[in-house]
Amino acid sequence: MPLTPRQQQVLDCLRQHAADFGRAPTLDGLCRLLGLRSRGSLHKHVQALIAEGLVEPLNGRHRGIHLVTQSTDENTLPLLGKIAAGRPIEALPQPDTIEIPPRLRTSRPCYVLQVTGDSMAEAGILDGDFVVIERRETARNGEIVAALIRGEETTLKRIIQEPGQVTLVPANRGLLPVVYAPEEVAIQGVLVGQMRAYH
After folding, report:
1. 86: which of 22, 25, 113, 134 lies 20 to 30 Å off by Cα?
2. What are the tens digits of pLDDT across the range 185-195?
3. In this structure, are residues 53 and 11 in contact, taking their beta carbons and an 8 Å threshold?
4. Which is more confidently placed, 174 or 6?
């Protein structure tokens, strides 16, 4: 079904904000951009976009929704950009796609990020590597996750979850683990595959 003018306006606003700032606005921010008084008035438009498969809910996370990327080839995945501090990964505009061998992904929705830096070098994850991330909001202790910190920056680290705190652990003896309150860390996926080019 074609989108209504208001639904298209919401979608265009999401895309424009992502293009300008590298991330989606919060739901409160989206209300302000559209001149709406409350999330309630936005809800039916967002639900329509979810039903069309254009956006996806984040199960109560403070950002609320993210743009969905589509792939027409079962051996390709969306390449959402570089995993580095300062840019949330869930709403990068105009993602590319990259071909991934089936054995490097799972049957669940996945996406690809390119690693920058050496914070996970001792786990064999080097600058420039491509990592396959299974989209999840939970992880087991010891798994390597893509984590959104305080809604602002993204990192690839090993996660340790304990009552009242979450520790993100680098694999580099020159860097220290960092402890956060649970509400400061949103898991955006778990590492399931990795690729490297030698040229």
Report:
1. 134
2. 999 899 999 99
3. no
4. 174
